[in-house]
């Protein structure tokens, strides 16, 4: 049996809070807030998703409708919000979500597709946002990136997500001039990168822990380590298509340094299929990479296998699961439109 994490979090609505593994493990979202019911697919106004995301107070946002919300502008999510798509099928299109200077945000069981425009990402996390968890989301076909994490945003976990039909999947650290991004810490696990071309992820400066992900048929490379980044790759599955190189190193010069450097990658227990070539540096630089247990004591990981590969193909991204009951005694938000 495959040991999938978070098996217990669908027993009650708010059991998600504080249950992420890795760097985003402290994210509680709207745990201490009222329920906010999204009752229509409008871009704005009473009962809309945008109205709930813009409120200042903590909220646990749930949906009473299924369908596509066509965003005419980026939707900014404020602190202490859970956007919980369990029980419905919600697709966000047109633009994406922006997490700016916020903390404690959970995004669960949503679909992102068809974002259009310059610098339009499905989920853009910058600046100085922290304690973020993105779980069981399907992301594909945006004009820029799917997830960007930059400008001192940190303590983030991305889990059980499905990335497809896209070029640039995940960017961590936006520029070699942003030396303050040395604080970035991200965990990515149990995700399925399905034919996306590059950035699974691409990292500048930050510390990134990858485990039990399945990346296949990339178009340029699987994982890229640029200036001063530290990447731990544990028990992932890399299955090559036409392109075989898994790990790419790209030198850049940090703004406060005299010479250009690349990043560092340590691979432990990774499974390389169909001629995938790790192309790891042999200069001992892997010793520069952090140890995950220095930051958190445990995580759910198993050896890469064909069983894990099949499991990740089936159980990542949006899932047709029922919305759990809310066992919290907090009174529901009477200001939200009810049905």
Number of domains: 2
What is the spatial order of strands in the main beta sheet?
Answer: 1-2-5-8-11-14-17-20-23-26
Question: Distance between the terminal alpha carbons, to the nearest Å?
Answer: 41 Å
Number of strands: 27
What pattern of helices and strands is seen along the backbone?
EHEEEEEEEEEEEEEEEEEEEEEEEEEEH
CATH class of the largest domain: Mainly Beta
As a percent range, the share of helical residues equals: under 10%
Assign an overall shape. Answer: globular
Q: How many DSSP H or I helices?
A: 2
Give me the CATH architecture of the largest domain, please.
Answer: 3 Solenoid
The major β-sheet equals: 10 strands, parallel
Stretches where pLDDT is under 50 for at least 5 consecutive residues are 329-339
- SS class: mainly beta
The CATH topology of the largest domain: Pectate Lyase C-like
Please give the radius of gyration in angstroms: 19 Å
Explain the overall architecture.
Belongs to the polysaccharide lyase 1 family. The chain has 339 residues and is mainly β. It has 2 domains: 1-118 and 318-332, Pectate Lyase C-like (3 Solenoid); 162-316, 3 Solenoid (Pectate Lyase C-like), CATH 2.160.20.10. Helix content is 4%, strand content 33%. It contains 2 helices and 27 strands. A 10-stranded parallel beta sheet has the order 1-2-5-8-11-14-17-20-23-26. Strands 3-6-9-12-15-18-21-24-27 form a 9-stranded parallel beta sheet, covered by helices on one side.
